[in-house]
Amino acid sequence: MKKLYRFSYLSKVISVFFGNACIFLLFVFTSNPSFAQDVQQNDRVNGWSSDIDTLLSRMKEQHYVYKTKPLPDQLIKNAALLKTKVAQYSDERMMGELERLMWYMTAILTLCR
Question: C-alpha 49: how far from its chain's center?
Answer without folding.
Answer: 11
